[in-house]
Amino acid sequence: MRWLVTGAGGTLGHDVVRVLEGAGEEVLAPPRSLLDVTRPDAVDAFVRGRRPDVVVNCAAYTDVDGAEAEPERAREVNAAAPGHLARACARGSARLVHISTDYVFSGRGRSTPYAEDCPTDPCSVYALTKRDGEDAVLGTLPDRSVVLRTSWLYGAHGRSFVGTMAGRAARGLSSEVVDTQVGQPTWSRDLAERVLWAGRRADAVGVLHAVNGGRTTWFGLARAVYALAGADPALVSPCPDDRFPRAADRPSYSVLGGDRWADWGAAPLRDWSEALAEALREMVPRS
């Protein structure tokens, strides 16, 4: 199969390309200079000319706070571009695997995992544009698209909270970390494997929650990183959200349920702590 991966230079896109190539797939991973996903004419021409079997959209405006100051740019990349890709796929025969986020939920008043069909309630510009991107994909290409929602993503390529904590742990530095947000750290390699699955599985459509299992807080994640790095977890102390004010609201609780995997005989992703232990063996600490 021929795969087109947008956003291949990012944390997830990098691992998606590695996983696909490792599985013997043909991969097209054009940089933005060759394919600007915000230009519908460019998207249509590229898809029509290269005729991929599967398009994987990893391109995203991910600066959650920056989106509050640049809402139009965030909308171009997160909401409009997925629609351009979906329409280009609809003109041919390609499937589309689109990556979305737990941020489409606010977490307000929530203490149980969100199912795939729960109503969304975004609480920031970033979250709203990502929700609109989902709607554009599912509304345009309902029979040949999969939206994979993920959360708290980290990997060996690019910057991440996990990489930053690993770097601080290696230098024996103390860290204050928020302990009032609950979610699921997800390793980009594990998610990339599910991208491969979703692209190959022609009967899989709609929304799937692709997150590592279990749940923790950013504080709990930081302590786990320190422990795995051989540092004293006591160097990490908890703090409330208002210790680090930010322009955009974050979901207070964004645990995602994964019941729909069973519809296709697949198991949910493994626990986040197991994935983290493997990931840290491959990651270079980052400051």
What do these coordinates show?
The chain is an alpha/beta fold. The protein has a domain at 2-153 and 186-211: Rossmann fold (3-Layer(aba) Sandwich), CATH 3.40.50.720. The chain is 37% helix and 16% strand. It has nine helices and twelve strands. Strands 2-1-3-4-5-10 form a six-stranded parallel sheet, with helices on both faces. The mean pLDDT is 95.
Strand order of the largest sheet: 2-1-3-4-5-10
CATH topology of the domain at 2-153 and 186-211: Rossmann fold
Number of helix segments? Answer: 9
Strand content: 15-25%
Please give the CATH architecture of the domain at 2-153 and 186-211.
3-Layer(aba) Sandwich
CATH class group of the domain at 2-153 and 186-211:
Alpha Beta
- What is the number of strand segments? 12
Inertia-based shape: globular
Q: What's the pLDDT, averaged over the residues?
A: 95
Radius of gyration: 18 Å
Largest sheet: 6 strands, parallel
**Low-confidence runs of at least 5 consecutive residues:** none
